[in-house]
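Run: sequence + zinc ion -> complex structure.
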Amino acid sequence: TKGKTRGVESLEKYMHGVDTDLDKNDCSICCEKLSEASSYGEGKAEAHAVVELNRCGHQFHKLCLLEMYHSIHKGGGLQCPSCKTIYGEKTGNCPPGYMQWRLVQDLTLPGYEGCGAILVSYHISPGIQGPDHPSPGHSFTARGFPRQGYLPDCDKGRKVLKLLMEAFQRRLMFTIATSHTTGEANTVTWNEIHHKTEPYGNHSGHGYPDPQYLDNVLMELAAHGVTEDCLR
Ligand code: NAD
Ligand code: ZN
Ligand code: ZN
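>> structure
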């Protein structure tokens, strides 16, 4: 498709070619030696081309990296399969919907006695899966929406809010999968960015107090490439 073609052109800026005639290392994508042809390179002129990713320095057959990008790619970014460094902007496949937030001044979250709370809500409706979903053309369900999460209304909580908004915009917040909680397939599920859905207790394990929560969710956001740098 058009999108994919554009993707490959833009990928080139994240890597440079290297000469590996004497290289004994394997390409960790196809498990062949870098000095041999790519498993995906049969009959292709570039079968022996090896590239190094600019920032992390990991090396792969060029064709292996492109093949991986096409088969698992769900957005604009490239992620190093060895160290997970993200190049460009990673986007997800969250189905259409919207996100809202509001301040709840008289709600005090356990562990954040000095401030009020921010209530974040997500609204997603059931629909038909698109080409970037597990079963294109089939329906998907969306249970328990609007779903809500609570943040303390402190500086760090507000920073997390901004990053959650960025993650939602990049379609990273939910995906379509089989729910671990209910076992239902083809349904909208949270996607590795945790929310505190319980304001008053912690019966579900997704409530307060949890002194590590803001740091943990910042790590989860960063793992998707959403960091403070994105807000500049
Ligand atoms: P899932 O069960 O596949 O799990 C995906 C991620 O969500 C995991 O990282 C998990 O740790 C996290 N998670 C699980 N329970 C959570 C909770 N209560 N609050 C915050 N995060 C939670 O994901 P899913 O199918 O999206 O279900 C997660 C939660 O969504 C359920 O526990 C439930 O609270 C809610 N849900 C509600 C309904 C409903 O009809 N009210 C239906 C489905 C899910
Ligand atoms: Zn390879
Ligand atoms: Zn790497």
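>> summary
The helical segments are 2-11, 62-72, 155-169, 213-223. The chain has two domains: 2-87, 97-231.
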